[in-house]
Amino acid sequence: MNSPDTVATLRQAALEVFATDGLDATVRAVAAHAGMSHGLIRHHFGNRDGLRKAVDQFVIERILQTFALDTGGGVGLDDEVSARRRERVARFTYEEPDVAMYMGRLLTEDPSAGQSLFDAMANGLRDELETLTGAARPHSDLQVVAVQIVLIELGALALRPLIERHLGFGLTTRDGAQRWVYSALELLTDGIYLA
User: Fold this and answer.
1) What CA–CA distance (Å, rounded) separates 41 from 155?
2) How far apart are CA 165 and CA 80, in angstroms?
3) Model's pTM, two decimal places?
C-alpha cells in the first residue's frame, strides 16, 4: 500500500475508533481497526497527538465544505440554493456518521479542539451571512446570530444521544437526518413566530 493510501486508511480508522470509543482510544486500537501495524501510525503521524491533529483537520475541512453555502456563483439565497444545502447537510449526516459522531466527541471531550471547530464554523457562517445581500434579514449583531446557528448545528451532535432518546429516531439515519436538518433549516429560514 502506498503512503497516501496508508495515511488515508489510518486517518479513517482513527476517525471511526475515536468516534465510537472516545478520543482517548489508543494507537494500538486504531492500528488494529485498520489492520495495520501501530508503527505505521508513528511513522506517518509521529504519535497519537499527530494522528488526532490529522483527524481534527480532516473533520473541520469536511464540515466547512458541507455547511458552506453554494450559491452557484450568485450572491443570493433562493429556494434552489436552500434545497441544495439542506440535502447536502442531511446526506452528510447519514453518509458520514463517524464524522458527525467525532464532532460530538470533540465538543464534549476536547474543549481546545472543539473550540477550533466551533470558531471555524461561527466565523465562516458570519462571513457567509455578510455576503447574502438581500437574502438574509439584517441583524445588528451577525457574530451572535452566527453563534446561535452554529449552536443549532453542533448542539445536535454534542447532545445526540439525548436527542435521539427523546425523539425516538437516530440523527445519523437517512430519515432521521432529513427530518432533523429540514426542520432546523425551516426554523432558520421561516422562523417560529408570526409577528
Assistant:
1) 32
2) 33
3) 0.79
